[in-house]
Design a protein that fits this description.
The protein has two domains: about 90 residues, Arc Repressor Mutant, subunit A, CATH 1.10.10; about 80 residues, no CATH class. It contains eight helices and seven strands, in the order H-H-H-H-H-E-E-H-H-E-E-E-E-H-E. The strands form three sheets. It has a three-stranded antiparallel β-sheet with strand order 3-6-7, with no helix packed on it. The protein has a two-stranded antiparallel sheet with strand order 1-2. Strands 4-5 form a two-stranded antiparallel sheet. The longest helix is centred in the middle third of the chain and has 14 residues. The mean pLDDT is about 90. Bound molecules: zinc ion. The site of zinc ion has 7 residues, from loops. Zinc ion binds next to loops.
């Protein structure tokens, strides 16, 4: 449901951003896209999201230029959803949000995000405290933490058990019936 449309609300840039990314599931779709998830079925199994909701979110994010729809197979036609620069720019906000959640609501560490060059864990804005630099998203190394299920049921979670850089496309073997 959209936020209020009154003039004062429209002028606030946080309210404007929440019009786009404030719906349930939306930030988790963006999170997965940063992890390298691109395909409908991979989002579906990893998020456990209702199909209709996922389809609506992917469509909305594509319309907003946060994801870009690309055809990766012609016959039968298959599309994937690749995060754009506009979507990648949300990474520091997601990093901050994740740390805030861990500080206030759950101490379980599912993943570490490190500067690939030096191995230092990133600060709350996606910066490397050791190198005193903002780390480009493609240079962020994601590693499993102690709270992550070591034997997950879905293939996307299994693939994400291996340390990998953000944005690196997740490529799973195609199985019969996969969309
Ligand atoms: Zn560093």
């Amino acid at each position: 449901m959209a936020l209020g449309k009154d003039y004062a609300t429209q002028e606030c840039s946080i309210a404007r951003a929440l019009e786009i990314i404030g719906e349930r599931w939306t930030l988790l779709v963006i999170r997965d896209a940063l992890y390298g998830v691109r395909r409908y079925n991979d989002f579906l199994v990893h998020l456990g999201i209702p199909r209709a909701v996922l389809a609506a979110r992917l469509q909305a994010l594509t319309a907003e230029g946060i994801l870009e729809k690309r055809r990766y197979q012609q016959s039968p036609p298959r599309d994937e959803y690749v995060i754009t620069e506009r979507g990648i720019a949300l990474w520091p906000a997601l990093r901050s949000l994740g740390l805030w959640g861990r500080q206030h609501y759950t101490e379980i560490q599912l993943r570490y995000f490190r500067h690939a060059d030096c191995g230092t864990e990133l600060g709350p804005y996606g910066e490397c405290p050791a190198c005193a630099t903002v780390v480009p998203v493609e240079d962020v190394l994601m590693e499993p933490g102690p709270g992550l299920d070591p034997d997950p049921a879905d293939p996307v979670s299994r693939a994400l058990l291996v340390p990998r850089r953000l944005l690196q496309p997740l490529e799973l073997p195609v199985q019969p019936g996969r969309v």
